Queue: 4 jobs
Job 1
Amino acid sequence: LSRRCHHRSVSMLDVPFLPFCAFLGALGLLCVAMVGTWCQHWRGGFSLDGSSRTFNWHPVLMVTGLVVLYGAAALVYRIPNTWSGPKLPWKVLHGSLALGAFILTVLGLAAVFCFHNSQGTPNMYSLHSWMGLATVLLFSCQWVAGFGAFLLPWAPTWLRALYKPIHVFFGSTILLLSVASCASGINEKLFFSL
């Protein structure tokens, strides 16, 4: 009985890789479009003048960086087992997407700190703030450690093998923290708006 249940659960997860990636990419674009539309039409648009329109860059950049691009980086490295080519292009794409996510995240943090400072609002006053900052700090450490262990040629094989499960664990944890930070941030903004 357990063999049959195990076989059934494995076959249920057998999804074609490229269509699944395309589906998740479309969901990511839809997510960014919805947050952008929310900020453009219901929150007053975008600006760099320190007003609430400066703040509007924060949710768009953070969702694009920490959820969509970081999620794409995680997915890209889950190449199908049937791939027989070199892994280096996938590693470079994985690291590049994560670097792009990091850049957008830093810009998103700069936008919210600029807004808070121009309005006289204290920084780091909520659970969302602290959870988001912890996520960004973990993400920064993850990127630097991953770059050093997997993309630089000096790292020995034993070190890569030792660090890989840690890298995978923290990658998944950071992605979950990113989604939780986004949900808490949107709820916080709605709470203050309503």
Job 2
Amino acid sequence: GAEGPTLMSYFSNNQIQARKPKITFSTLRDLQCPVLQSNDLQGKPGESCSTEELLEWLGAVLNQVSLDNKSSSFLSTYCCPEPNTVVEKAFLCTITGFIIPEKIIQLLEQLCCYFGEPKLAPWLTLTVHGFADSPVSWRENEHGFHKGGENLYNFVIFRNLDYWLHMAVGAHDDCPP
């Protein structure tokens, strides 16, 4: 009862703004990309890379780490896993904000347009991060921050519409469903 007027006065005295997600675009030129086969999660030497190698590579790309294994680099001597191929142009879009699941489904559908002419991408990826300090994680259970606050999933979609789904949580969280 008495809380209603107090809350209303608080909200009317403090400006509330709707925040739109922040969107950034970048084009990566001559990017070394791992070769992937949709039916081979483990990878095969000389033929394709594994899901673990892909995730490691993706982390390097998203964090703008050099992939050329220069000994003079103090940040990283990481290099793209083998086998790999050089892609003349790769498109990277980052959306930061609170995004509902329906919008993520729309994004996936729009990304699949890159499989058509004239783009003909062999595969694409969509990573969704929960906030590291989010109060809940999978299945509406409490999210344990502890060290890194891991709370993400990643789709890799292939031209034949096969897909891989990676899911990651912290050591103290429930596993995804």
Job 3
Amino acid sequence: LTNTNITDAQEMETIWTILPAVILILIALPSLRILYMTDEINNPSFTIKSIGHQWYWTYEYTDYGGLIFNSYMLPPLFLNPGDLRLLEVDNRVVLPIEAPVRMMITSQDVLHSWTIPTLGLKTDAVPGRLNQTVFTATRPGVYYGQCSEICGANHSFMPIVAELIP
């Protein structure tokens, strides 16, 4: 009770398989070009190198004579009223607003992740590899983040604080 003309539609099956694939390729090619164009910046205002250690970050302002400092989490006894527990650090990264900033991120020991969610930044810090992220902040303020990799027993105690000033 089957009609052989209905089950034999190889031309139609070929069309509805190839046509969506062609449409996806036509959408993907310009998107990939735009993705790579937006990822690269040629002339940043600042370049900062961030090195992840267990359990602190080292920052190096490479454009300004190699200014290097460590950023440790503040213990609860040293917090001021209004400071955020487990998120406040002794040395903040100070950056200008409305200027392109390039962050070079690496690690010295294990995998880390330099993450500030309110700025939309998350870049892995891998030992032996230098990763790059570029951002331009538009609003001044203090932005908090943490290492978001499971990099050891105290991995959540690697806060990141960026202070953006005009």
Job 4
Amino acid sequence: TEAVSHRRMALEEGRSLPETTQKEVPQTLGHGVALGAALCPQDVAALQYRAPQLAVDCLTQALPGPPHAALILDVACGTGLVAAELQARGFLQLHGVDGSPGMLEQARARGLYQRLSLCTLGQEPLPSSEGTFDAVLVVGALSDGQVPCSAVPELLRVTKPGGLLCLTTRTNPSNLRYKEALEATLARLEQARAWERLVAWPVDQWELATSELEVGPGTSDSDGFISGIVYLYRKQEAAQAEGVRPSA
């Protein structure tokens, strides 16, 4: 809805949420930032959302060749949090897709991407040919109610053989069911030799929780942070194995 898009844009831009939008917000919003059922009046920048920086750090260490030569796809790009991190490290060939026209409008205004496309991953294929990108990132959108696990093979389809895929998700209690389903999908693709895992990097201080429901056993609740994880995979160079088909 328009209200949800407004809250998401406010979150990404580091602005305070107007009081009129602070009631009955979704549990997750934007790039996977956890929001409680009733958000306290606070500057959302104080959430210290670290996923874009962590993902780009991980990708940069593994990507061969100079950054400016790599063609990157930022899936569920929002207003460009990931692109800002990529550009700061010398990545210049950036394409983005998002399911929200409002997000794309904001991203376009920032001038961070060479190309932006409207696409709701999980409901339609990515608007790119097979084997197009040196790296594909999905930062924060892999959670319940956003990008479904069934869309992961579509990310593989548009990645070049030997290319990298960087994915993140939260690991706090409210997202554990989705994380388990995601990891089952990731493991199936690895067993089928579609890709190989390079990194699975758990991070305790992922972002500040805004609700007591977001913290619990196994999370860094002593300092108010919830946890997350960065996955990095390399697509296999050779023909893919049985049981893994690109999306139609």
